[in-house]
Input
Amino acid sequence: MGRGTLAWLILTFLRVLESNAVEIKPSTNPAVAGDTLTLSLSPSLTFKSGSWAVGEIQILTWLGEQQAVFSNHTGRASVNVLTGALTLSSVKVTDSGVYIVQSTDPPLKANTSITVLEAVSNVTLKATQTSLTEFNSSVIMTCTVSSGSSLSFVWMNSSSEVNASERVQLTDGGSTLTITNVTRYDRGPFECHASNSVSNGSSDSVSLTITYGPDNMALTVNGLNTTSFPAGSNLTMLCSAQSNPPAELRWAFQGQPVNTSGPLWELMSVTKDHSGLYSCLASNNHTNLNSTITKNILIAGSSEHVVNAWLLLLFLLSRLLY
Output
């Protein structure tokens, strides 16, 4: 074997080793649909010929300064005949795939996987209904987009992320939220966030009106929890209930309704006759529910004790004077 032949073999072997180390470097991956994508080779080489394909589909070939683009990429693909870099304009989701570059001068074959995604736009949230009754109603909310591919969905109830539970189902890839037997804590506002690895978007918020109650009633007297007061006191009784819409409040004494309504009942200069059971009755016409709270109030002593004290004092004074 002559020296020239040996040198040629060594050079060819070194170029093969060099070409096997070539990597395809995309300008971006994943790429956004509509953008321009460039696939460069690293390290940089000088080519005399080669071809690009995506999967089994031929994109283009080149020889010297001449290049030929196949019909499915006409007007969108070009190659740098010196560096072998491929440029695709207005990429589509269907351009996703494994891109292969081949050359015989220098000899090489390399590939890389490219993903093209549509950017998220116009995220919209719709609910089947927005007026519901606690424990008796269900709602389905759907999240849609005008464009976007390979989407992930996240639902928010106010500042908290919504997670699946016994009452809450996330279906259709997370784009549909179903809440059964709603509670007062399901009011929202709800938002839907749609995203992929190249973009994201959020819907406008939707709030639910949930009727509930009355329940969790409270009754205080003079702002205190005590139920015993001296005769002659003025009593201010305050009643509250959790309810939507606000509950209608009425009062009763010893089980008998009185001509007083609203959250406040005031009694002036009470006597022992005012001792007994005081009840606040709450009702909600939207839920058709009622609730009652009762306190047994004791009025200690009476005004008679004051009169008797004065009579005793007068008696003692008369004995001293006479």
The first helix runs from residue 3 to 20.
